[in-house]
Amino acid sequence: MLMKDKTTLIFEIKEIVERFQGNPALLFQEIKSQNSKEELAQIYSWIVENSFDIPLLSQTIKEIDKLKNHENLDALIDFLISKTNEKFITSKSEENDFINLKVLAVKVIGNFQDKKAVPALLYCLNSKQENYKIRLCIAEALGKIGDKGAVESLINVVKDESEKSVYVRESAAKALGMLGDLKAI
């Protein structure tokens, strides 16, 4: 099968997103019926990088998890680090939706079990400005990925008496157990 060039793909996806706005299920049904897995990976990355529609992003991240194409990992990492809430949030419920969206992204990143995600995850774990739900999910993802390079940061979180969330500390301790490094003892 001949793969479409990126410009054609982006044009098509913009058209489809506009046509199915507000109905992510139909949008993805249409996208999947017309594109190869490689094209789907490009489309999903484009949506994650360019959309500010929470339901669309949520469904896209779920589709990335199903597709398991490592090309999407960079888009998820960039989303986690660079997308901030001011473009997404106009109400308290949207703030919760945005936090849940980032938690979903972290879980999918963890499912890839790719060590290239570790520096970004550690950056977010060590940021006390990051929401505690996201940080505890990050600790779990680090344990799932299994990179021993995360041990020191996880130990620091567990030892940090000023850490406001006991859940983050508990999640970091569980991640240390998953890593099985003797320094964690």
Question: What keywords describe this structure?
Answer:
185 residues, mainly alpha, 0% strand
Describe the model.
- With 185 residues, the chain is mostly helical.
- The chain has 10 helices and no strands.
- Helix content is 70%, strand content 0%.
Entry summary:
The chain has helices spanning 6-19, 24-34, 37-50, 54-67, 73-82, 92-112, 118-125, 132-145, 151-159, 166-179. By secondary structure, it is mostly helical.
Number of helices: 10
Structural class estimated from helices and strands:
mainly alpha
Strand content: under 5%
The main pleated sheet reads as:
none
- Strand segment count: 0
* Average pLDDT score: 91
Helix content: 55-70%
> Whole-Å distance between the termini?
53 Å
Oligomer: single chain
Rg from alpha-carbon coordinates: 18 Å
Shape from CA axes?
A: globular
Note poorly predicted spans: none
Tell me the series of helices and strands, N- to C-terminal.
Answer: HHHHHHHHHH
Any chance you could write out the topology, listing elements then pairs?
Layout lengths: L5 H14 L4 H11 L2 H14 L3 H14 L5 H10 L9 H21 L5 H8 L6 H14 L5 H9 L6 H14 L6
Helix pairs in contact: 1-2, 1-3, 3-4, 3-5, 4-6, 5-6, 6-8, 7-8, 8-10, 9-10
